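User: Hello, can you help with two protein structures?

Assistant: Certainly.
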Amino acid sequence: MSTDNRSAAAAQPSLAAGLASAVTAYLIWGLTPIYFKSLAMVPPFEILMHRIVWSFVLLLPLMVLNRRWSHFVTTLKSPRLILILTASTLLVGTNWFLFIYAINTNRILQTSLGYYINPLVNVLLGMLFLGERLRRLQVIAVALAVLGVGYLTFYYGAFPGIALALAFSFAFYALVRKVAPVAAMEGLAVETLLLSVPALAFLFYLDQQGNGAIFRLDWHVDLLLIGTAAATAVPLLLFTFGARILQLTTIGFLQYIAPSCTFLLAVFIYHEPFSQAQLISFGLIWTGLAIFSFDAFRYQQKRHRALAPA
């Protein structure tokens, strides 16, 4: 076997591991509604507070094991990074709350719609804030998404606020984190640390009032509340590992796994109403995403050809 063939064979398990990690991350994110549905007896804001606190508790030993503690401390010593991460903290906290609220108020379809729209919102924000120019097919994709949302609003007379708030809050979160040179793990640790102080105060207040859920309802509920940490950190770590190995185009295609799982759960498991108007709206957005994905793939291929040695 030649040296090149041996190198390719050695790289293959790494590529497979990256793909498995990314797919698993998106599957966990897509199936998360099942987890939060099992906590329907707990108010969404209280679930959010537990998610923040327990995520920080879980991340502390993970940072030590992954030798990221010094990076975490360095980040905490930088006023500029703390300022940037305070903004990202508010955005991710808003996104988490809206997601939990939508699930536990039987609006899972809105979460699916929001995360289908998200990639197109990312492109739009890149144009507005980073000076990126939209290619023709990207303009068509964004226009179809706007048309889909507009049709749904016109048909129902109700703006899909949760879906758009989820899409924009996560897109702005990604935009803010783009300018913060902080890795995923310590970035999330700082964000949960910043939120943990008010979260702990709120949970202590609930406990003093005799209204807190943990250690009062059932041991299953206790475990589920504590387990929100794993539901938060595990897919993020898997995604980070996979994203380091896979091409950006591959990640772009895989990201539709999560909202597709959520969509299937909403319609076939939780039997949320899915009308003809919603089908048309989703159809327009799906078409836009197909065009967007085709354009991304074609653009990546052109770049590879341009960068390839003659």
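That covers the first. Now for the second protein you mentioned:
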Amino acid sequence: MNSVHGVPQPGGNSDPATCTDCHSSDSNPHNVVRVLEPEASTYPKNIAQTCAKCHDDPKLMDKYGIVEKVYDSYMRSYHGKAIKLSPDNATIQQLNTATCVNCHGSHNIKATSDPAAPVAGMDNLLRTCQICHSGAGPEFVKGFLGHKAVNSDFLPQVYWTGTSFYIFSRAMLAGGVLIVATSIGLRGVPRIIRKVKRRKKGE
């Protein structure tokens, strides 16, 4: 009840998640599955999709001024990719990468602006990262972008480096395909000529 989801509930705000929104895939109290069951909405492999029920809803997020695409940015991250690429029958031990609840908490989630939030400020963030990354120091968290997407205004050097690499890699790939296609095509021309001559002779 003291979490960012619980505080608005007594006032009649039904937008924030309740117990069943997280513990049931369809928010049905009769469809709650034990947390450690792979099909549970609270199983590590399913956590991001569970949070995305609200946090990937543009209309709902706009209502609260949350502009970051939290689900998309998480799935682009190393942690998100590790979860996505893990087998469907992965055990808890195999799913040893951070999900939303590892960083933000579960029943006690605080707003990111709350000084008590585990991701508020560099000191709290470092302590949170050190839970998994025991050797992490202040430099480790300085490169953390949160859920913000880089663009030409926010961290332009990162944005333009990524954009340049994207264009360069596509150009190299296209060039390789063109060389192979041209090579195959040029080798195929004499064969086509020979076939045409044979047909003419046959006529």
